[in-house]
Amino acid sequence: MLKIGLTGGIGAGKTLVSYFLRKLGAYVIDTDEIAKSLTDIGGEAIPRIVEIFGEKVIDSNGLLDRSWLRELIFSDNNARINLESIMHPLINYYSDLMLKEFVGLYVVFVVPLLVDSSIWLDKVNRICVVDCDEDTQIKRVSKRHLSLSTIKKIISVQSDRYTRLNFADDIIINDDSISKHDLFRQVKMNHDYWCVLSERF
C-alpha cells in the first residue's frame, strides 16, 4: 500500500489539494477533519480538554471555544503540549481505523505537522509538500478572521518552509500567482505518478 503524507504550512492550500485528490479517486484521511469531529459537541476529546483547561473552554452555546483555545495554545507552549497530548493519540488511533477501510491505489494522509512527528514520518512512504511563500500564507489565513499576530504565532510554531521542503519527495507549488487550473494540473500529475508508483507497494 502506497501511503502519501500531504503536508504544508497553514494557508498553503492542503484542503484544496486534498479535495482535488478525492475528485481524482484518492483515498484521503484528513487529520484536521478527525480533530474537528473529536472536538465537536459530544466529541471524544471534549471531556479531557475540559478537565485540563477548565469549563471556560466551552462557550455559552456548549461548543468548544476554538478562538479562546487557539489564542492560548499559540501563546503558551505548555498549553499547546497538553492539547497535543490529548489530540495526537486519538488522531493516530482513528486514522489507523480509517486506513483499514482503504480501497484504491494509494492513500493520502493530510497532516499539517507531519515533518515534526516521527510517528507520521515512519507511517508514510512519500511526503508531498504543498508550498507557498509566507506572504501568501498570511494573505489567505487573514480571510479566516484571525489577527496578524495570531497568524504569525501559528506559523512560528510550525516547521519552517525550508525544513518541510527538505523532507519533500514531491512538491506542489501554490503561490498566489497559481490559478486553480494550474494547481489541479500539478495535483493530477502527482496523482498519475502515484498510481503508477503504487504498483510497487
From TrEMBL:
GO BP terms, alphabetized = coenzyme A biosynthetic process
Q: Does the keyword Glycoprotein apply?
A: no
SUPFAM superfamilies found in the cross-reference section = P-loop containing nucleoside triphosphate hydrolases (SSF52540)
Where on this chain does ATP bind? 11-16
Q: In which pathway does it act?
A: Cofactor biosynthesis; coenzyme A biosynthesis; CoA from (R)-pantothenate: step 5/5
Compartment annotation: Cytoplasm
What Gene Ontology cellular-component terms does the record carry? cytoplasm
Keyword Oxidoreductase set for record: no
Q: What does this protein do?
A: Catalyzes the phosphorylation of the 3'-hydroxyl group of dephosphocoenzyme A to form coenzyme A.
Its name, as the record gives it, is Dephospho-CoA kinase
Q: Which organism is it from?
A: Candidatus Kinetoplastidibacterium galati TCC219
